[in-house]
Amino acid sequence: MKFAHPSDTRNQPSLALRHKQTPHKLRTADPSRRRHPLSALRPPPGPDRLPIPAQVTPHEGLTRLNGLPRHAAEQALRTCCASGAWARRLAAHRPYPDLDALLAAADEASYDLAPVDIAEALGRESLPLPPVAAVYSAAHTALAAAHAAYQDRFGHTFVVCLDDTAPDEALDHLLSALRDRLGNDREEERVLAADELRRLARGRIVRLVRNFPDLLDRPDHAGAPGPGPEAAERECVGNSPYVPV
Asked: How many CA atoms lie within 13 A of 238 on its CB side?
């Protein structure tokens, strides 16, 4: 009897056949809960991921946010992004050791939002209105017309983060972004709007932590229910000058 040596591949199936596998059946999921395409933009792991401004020492506001009851923390966080799923996720993962960790968690939660969650957040947004727009009626009219066209095309408010834009350039930047994005298709614009929500949330978190009010020492928290973290945060002067929360 003749035995084939293991190195003799003449009578062995090809490598492609040996590794051929039967594809698994795809499971169907609720389309409203599928992750938004923004998740594809999640930065790859590495030292350059999620560039966040360095924080030397923990801020007292973060300590207060960490110590709030979960429901109160969710209310406060929803002033930064109105998605309930986003706020619940961040509140559940407390305590955060520093602002950097909170911002990183906020980015991760934004990348994982489902379309229904993004729609919820967009539904609570309002058009950013730089102060100069109220002074120049022509600019205000142009802005209103462009935004009406945008809402008619995409079905939600236009969102853009102006935190890094100089006040005297904010109106031009806003109008230019509005007109440019009117040419997008629906899916492309959903991805852009989702990323703008993420950027807005980051800036609002920074302002929330830096200006977090002394909620527990307020007289209205001694007995009768007071305005709560959401209303209190709105009173802070550290909110974005361009984008209402």
From this structure: 16
